[in-house]
């Protein structure tokens, strides 16, 4: 199993990436191909011990910066490391590509090089997140803004496939992120998507709210990338603020500090469970091949975990599984591509002579 | 100062509302008018001591349930408590209205009875939230879905006014919620709103991300109601999950339990700071009068705090202040009403010959 890793991508690249790769090959039965500036990578790699021959360096002369426009950068930088990793997957030299760099550029490079699965209009970012008592797949976690109904429907089916093979749930419960549980709640795209998913053969739970994301109400949460990104970053921000405040409160009193000594192991386990660096990377779902993106702020441990996730996805051939699921489900084929547009048009024309009569009213959220 | 309170609104109404009202009039120099079913309210009120004459009951024979369609319910239920509270404000019998009931119905009733401030197309929900080191105004917290550019621009100016008078900040920093800090990041509505706010005389900080909401980066956060609602509920959900997990971790070990004894005061202060029931209610901003909504799950303490907030808003005449600000700012007048549409049309036609050349590209978020 070979994982192509963008050595130049991320806020702490290449140092953190090189160290993370060394950590990964010590733990995992895989080879890492570090793609980037050989002259920079070689001396860094020499600092970290790793099994002979399990890290290969492939030179790439260009880098897409975190703040660059993905489209512009990839138009000009043909030898960018973030593009080369996908080319290695495309040529069969690697089984998965991983980058902690500009996530928009990673998605676009994956799209340009690997293309999408048949029937998928837009790939999305599928994140597997820790919840109160388990895990949940959230998608789109930030690749697509202004998603249309057929995009959300495709996300739902892809999320269903991901939850089956990544979480091992046979018939995952799919929820649609909205601002109220009732069918009529949400914006126009969400209200229409609700109706289509309700008619699909998915195990569709209905709408879920922001408070349900981490609450094990469903296994898959479907949303537009703008909304998903805001939700995830809000959650992450809250965890950080709470940790900081908790520390401040503890330090503010002698009793608190004394208590902390005893609670440290419990707090550490707790931190481990909800720390992004432990959860690794997110899957670029819908590409015809396996691409994983990691957090821009990834430290070596986060990089190692993102490589581990890439390894797991490559081993379980998740892209192929999603493709099989896409191809085997008649409902999915129907929902993909042109037919879903027909359904939407029908709904708009008929103003829904279905059971949901109040659905086109502009009900407010709670 | 008189506050009209919807005695029948909320998951724990009328019990929690009546008890909260009794708590409020013991602490605050105000009179509460409890609006709802007199026969139900009277015996409940008898259970809670309160200063003579500071709680008045006004009978209303109908109730809008939490799961009812606001529009349908208000079309038929003319004597609904959630409508009557706004009528008391309209007639001058009360200085503010407060409900913990169906928030969509509260907004619609406020709109029907009080109307909007001149130049405001759609009122919104303005929430004042605790942050790491202070407070932040977030709007819209859930009243409007599919907000247009001119709505977001109006929210920005109303949020500016609210932050001035509710947070006491002279020149509040205004941020636009998006999925990346750069100008080109976000969906189409957000990208266009960015350009207009950039040209306004507001202290516009630019885009902020979900992780910045509780991080004191700005004083005002502007977003569509769908996005704001998801973000707030996600944040709330994360707090709950973390509290539950932390408790579980602590209880899992003897050391942890021992430590907890010492840390309890610190944890309690911490909980108080981030507990929604302590923060009270949110303002229906843009109405021509003061309306406050509280969380549906409000317990008596949350109700008391929402009444306290209504009292504060009434005392500082926040609606009038917002109106003054609307009227005194030429920029605001320009942005309100028709002119903002002209600006948007200009932008669309010219494809922005401003400094932001890349802004119409569909850049992905990080």
In short:
The structure is a homodimer of 366-residue chains. With 366 residues, chain A is an alpha/beta fold.
Morphology call of chain A? globular
* Computed Rg of chain A: 22 Å
- Unreliable runs of chain A, pLDDT <50, ≥5 residues? 350-366
Largest sheet of chain A: 11 strands, mixed
Q: For the terminal residues of chain A, how far apart are their CA atoms?
A: 49 Å
The multimeric state of the shown protein is homodimer
CATH architecture of the largest domain in chain A: 3-Layer(aba) Sandwich
Q: CATH homologous superfamily of the largest domain in chain A - what is it? A: Isopropylmalate Dehydrogenase
Tell me the CATH topology of the largest domain in chain A: Isopropylmalate Dehydrogenase
Strand order of the largest sheet of chain A: 3-2-1-4-11-10-5-6-9-7-8
Your description of this structure?
Two copies of one chain form a homodimer. Chain A is built from 14 helices and eleven strands. By secondary structure, the first copy, chain A, is of the alpha/beta class. Chain A folds into two domains: 1-120 and 286-335, Isopropylmalate Dehydrogenase; 133-280, Isopropylmalate Dehydrogenase, CATH 3.40.718. Chain A has an eleven-stranded mixed beta sheet, with helices on both faces. In chain A, strand 5 and strand 6 form a beta hairpin. Residues 350-366 of chain A have low confidence and may be disordered. Chains A and B meet through helix 3, helix 5, helix 8 and helix 9 of A and helix 3, helix 5, helix 8 and helix 9 of B.
């Amino acid at each position: 199993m070979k994982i192509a890793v963008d050595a130049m991508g991320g806020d702490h690249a290449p140092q953190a990436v090189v160290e993370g790769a060394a950590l990964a090959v010590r733990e995992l039965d895989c080879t890492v191909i570090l793609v980037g500036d050989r002259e920079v990578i070689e001396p860094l790699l020499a600092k970290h011990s790793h099994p002979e021959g399990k890290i290969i360096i492939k030179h790439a002369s260009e880098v897409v910066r975190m703040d660059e426009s993905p489209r512009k950068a990839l138009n000009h930088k043909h030898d960018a490391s973030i593009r080369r990793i996908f080319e290695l997957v495309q040529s069969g030299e690697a089984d998965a590509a991983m980058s902690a760099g500009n996530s928009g550029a990673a998605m676009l490079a994956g799209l340009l090089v690997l293309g999408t699965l048949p029937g998928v209009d837009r790939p999305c970012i599928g994140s597997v997140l820790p919840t109160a008592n388990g895990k949940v797949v959230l998608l789109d976690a930030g690749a697509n803004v202004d998603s249309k109904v057929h995009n959300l429907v495709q996300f739902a089916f892809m999320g269903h496939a991901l939850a089956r093979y990544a979480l091992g749930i046979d018939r995952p419960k799919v929820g649609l992120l909205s601002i109220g549980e009732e069918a009529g709640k949400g914006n126009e795209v969400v209200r229409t998507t609700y109706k289509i998913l309700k008619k699909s053969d998915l195990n569709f739970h209905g709408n879920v709210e922001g408070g349900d994301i981490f609450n094990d109400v469903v296994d898959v949460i479907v949303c537009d990338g703008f909304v998903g990104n805001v939700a995830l970053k809000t959650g992450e921000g809250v965890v950080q603020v709470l940790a900081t405040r908790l520390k401040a409160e503890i330090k503010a009193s002698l009793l608190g500090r004394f208590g902390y000594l005893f609670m440290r192991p419990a707090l550490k386990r707790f931190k481990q469970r909800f720390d992004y660096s432990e959860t690794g990377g997110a899957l670029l779902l819908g590409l015809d091949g396996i691409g994983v993106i990691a957090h821009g702020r990834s430290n070596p441990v986060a990089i190692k975990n993102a490589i581990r996730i890439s390894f797991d996805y490559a081993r379980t051939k998740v892209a192929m599984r999603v493709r099989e699921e896409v191809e085997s489900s008649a409902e999915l084929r129907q929902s993909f591509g042109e037919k879903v547009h027909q359904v939407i048009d029908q709904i708009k024309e008929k103003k829904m002579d279905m059971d949901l009569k109040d659905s086109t009213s502009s009900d407010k959220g709670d």
